[in-house]
Amino acid sequence: MRTAASQLTTQKDKFSLPDGIHYLNCATRAPLSRTVEQAGHDAIHRDSNPFGLRPDDFFSGAIRVRTLFSQLINNPDPDRIAVVPSVSYGMAVVARNLPNKPGIRAGQHIVLVGSEFPSDVYAWDRVCLELGLTIKTVPMPEEYPRGPRWNERLLDAIDSNTALVIAPPVHWMYGIRFDLEAVGQRAREVGAWLAVDGTQAIGALPVDIGTIQPDAVVCAGYKWLMGPYSLGLAYYGPAFDEGTPLEEGWMNRLDSNQFHKLMDYQPVYRPKAYRYNVGEHTHFVQMPMLEASLEQLLDWHPERIQTYTNELMQDAWPALEQLGCQIEPLNGSQGRSHHLVGLWLPEHTDPMAVQQALQTEKVSVSARARALRIAPHVYNTPEDADALVRVLTKVLSV
């Protein structure tokens, strides 16, 4: 992986975004780069003639992707990576195996941060009912700045009655960071599992499995991994090594690449996280696309992406604050990120109406609850930041 020493310049020429479009919305869906797009076209062309396809071809693409994703999150063991179709699937694996957690007992709770993405909330309803667990939600503070106090409340919520903590590196709506190294340490102290939804961070923000030491990390591929939809990746630590998968895919068993022996039914799984792969995880078209996007991200480097997006938007934030907007300040691992920023609009402003006004002027952002979510990337230029400020100035000055 390229180091963060050299600075990134705009990568707009590597994308097919039309001129005049100001796409500051990677947190909703990343545009595919030309390289990823070409990888998809090439894969479709190969699929038009499957003559000569070998058994190992069903496995090799995913092996390469596991290795690349492991490099991105500083995971030394690619066998701990599973191919999943979604965050809901990856979190369902955690829920399925929670009854096997040592020391689990009725009356314990699962800790969530407030206003979390639905896939990280719905996953626990059934297992809570079955095991007699409750949900403890840590709401976002009203006082400003919110990050340090929210992190403090999260740590305070983790105690000897905590069975599981679900926390993201970056809040999906507001861009506020959580100090997952501290959260992981607290979880280990009380014997709780830590599951991380890395979807809104991994690829654009440095995320280090070695320092966080989570039990599970799940990441959709179509946002900051900049790959295709319906394909994601998940890390499962040693707690899941002998766990129960959601489905019994034939490819997840030992020696499953020996097609001439498939009727010699194999009771033994391939090691570690392999049992949690979704069925048909080969994804002959999508896997080469994800491989290309991961290679690109490793070259760009998440730290360099943070630097680029910081410098891109650094003049926009003060201008928007002068309009009465509010932005979480920088505060290390407890402040805001650079690639995903929640912009709180002035009171009595309708975020959906503002989003529509921006869309009319070809500026794409997302309205999320009380804020606009601004999500720049390396394909953005100063013209995009200027367009955001220009349109908001017109809308909010009325």
Please provide a written account of the structure:
- The protein is α/β, with parallel strands linked by helices and 398 residues long.
- It folds into 2 domains: 12-33 and 301-396, Aspartate Aminotransferase, domain 1, CATH 3.90.1150; 41-297, Type I PLP-dependent aspartate aminotransferase-like (Major domain) (Aspartate Aminotransferase, domain 2, 3-Layer(aba) Sandwich).
- 34% of the residues lie in helices and 13% in strands.
- It has helices at 34-47, 57-73, 87-97, 119-122, 125-131, 147-157, 180-190, 209-212, 286-300, 302-313, 316-321, 351-360, 382-396; strands at 22-23, 81-84, 109-113, 134-138, 162-167, 193-197, 216-220, 232-236, 326-327, 341-344, 363-364, 366-368, 371-374.
- A 7-stranded mixed β-sheet has the order 2-8-7-6-5-3-4, with helices on both faces.
- Helix 2 (57-73) packs parallel to helix 9 (286-300).
